Amino acid sequence: MSALFNFQSLLLVILLAICTCTYVRAVAPRLVDRNKEGFLGLFFMAARIGERLSPYVALACISMAGALLMQ
């Protein structure tokens, strides 16, 4: 089933995108910072969310891992 139609899979994809963008911005900031507008600006926004809300993103990742293990 597509990740767009399954809510749990959609949340997993969003969490992975946030974590990946945050990591890429920490390693190579110029790669993410140069695209602040348009479609690629979504990656910049995901990196911002990951930086500013990192405790909540970490808790969401842990709870998602627990939910996937219980399935």
UniProtKB/TrEMBL annotation:
Sequence intervals crossing the membrane: 53-70
Keyword Signal applies: yes
Signal peptide: 1-26
Bilayer topology term: Single-pass type I membrane protein
Pfam families: DUF1242
Keywords: Golgi apparatus, Membrane, Signal, Transmembrane, Transmembrane helix
Localisation per UniProt entry: Golgi apparatus membrane
Family: Belongs to the KISH family.
Protein task: Involved in the early part of the secretory pathway.
UniProt-recorded name of the protein: Protein kish
